Every structure is written in structure tokens, then in C-alpha cells.
Response regulator transcription factor
Amino acid sequence: MRGITVNEIIAWFVPRQPADVRETLEASRDREERMKLQQALQELGVQTAISEDLEDLRLLLSRVEPALLIADLNHAAAWAGWSLVSDLREQGKRLTVMVLSDGRYGEEAAAAFEAGGNEYMVKPVHTGEFKCRVDNLMRLTGRRRGLSSLLKVDGLVLDPTRRLVLRDGTELKMTPKEFDLLYYLAMHLGEVCPREDILKQVWDYHFHPDTNVVDVYIRHIRLKVDKGHKNKLIHTVRGTGYVLRAPEGAPDADTNL
């Protein structure tokens, strides 16, 4: 099924460095290490969203609930972001935090755990160990469950376990029936879905020639999914039904975790 991938999102906080620090040898090594770790995350089937300041991180976490937050910190205990983490947890959001630090194990690690961290690694990080620890954290917290049913079509992500819809990182509010219809179209990506089949599979009743319920719901989800986007995903096949189609050049199916 063209254009569908399985993935989760990991938020990664990397404090923006002053201009006079960005070109140092140490900063260059940090960037190279981060690229290697991001590649390891891709191999796990997850995407990363980088934030360089707390306001950007706050906006990101208000839109999505990441599988994990990685905080790249020099002094973990002094990080101002712990209050944000605490606030989100009090609001009921599940937020697991892994700290990457230039410090050492012992007091620095203990301070990170006491502040709210769930995992701690000292840089430079061994890529294989990092990959295993991230995978283990997500499995222990249940964020790897149901991934086989998580769908991504271009920038559209559907998670049936949480009945969550995102497009380009922004959550789209859907009614239960709107979600069912959109998920049905995504499961049949590139296939024309006749109205009578949609009625039978989504509404659980046989075709009534005088009903326009499918057309009404399609209009509703089009406004939410496609409005304002150059690439339109939902298309009408006149006289037949509808098809959800990935744009040209979208990646092929990838469900390797």
C-alpha cells in the first residue's frame, strides 16, 4: 500500500548554542553524534522533532503526545524544562523523559531522576546501547503497542488505539464516525471505495440509493484534512465513490520496526 509507514514521534530538546560556540570542535562532534542517534531512531521506525528552546518545545508538546522526550542537557538538575514536564504530567499526559548529559553517573544522574527523568545516559553515547534503551523505554511504557495499525499517508497520521489524527504534526479533531471513515479510506489507500461499500463497512448497513450520508461526511473530513494543504489526499471518483491517494513521490510501505 503506497505511502503508508509505521512510526511514532520522539521530541528532542537541544538547547540553542550561542554563535561563538556553534563552530567549536566539541559542538561539531555533538552534531555528528546526534545525526547517528537520529539514524538509530529511524531504524526503530520513529521520527524526531527537534526543539531548541522551551517555548518551541511547549508548542510541540501541546500538539502531539510523543512516545519519548529526549533532553540533551549539560546540567540536568538545573533545566527549566522540568516544570513544563511536571505541568503536562499533572494534566494527564504520559511523558517519558530520557536525559543525555555531559555530566557523569552518580550525583548528576540522581539529580536528573529526582527532577523527573526516567532514563539517563552520559555522552558520548554508544549508538547500539542508545537504540536498545529507547526501544525498551517505549515497550515498558506501552508506546510500542498497536504500531502495526498506525498509518501514515504523506503528512497524515492515524492512530486507532487513541483515535488520534494528525496532519503535519497538528492534531485534527474528528468525530468517531469521521475517524472511522478516514481510517477506512487510509486502509484502502489508492483503491476506489464505492459509496455502498463505505456504507456497509463504516455504517454497517446496506446501500440506500437515496442517502447522501457518505458525501456529507466526506465534506466534513475534507475540510479538516485537506483545507489549506497543497497536496490533497481525498479525491472523488464521479459516479462511484472516493479514494485516498498519496501524492506522487510518497515513500512505499515500511512497517519494519
The two ends are 17 Å apart (CA to CA).
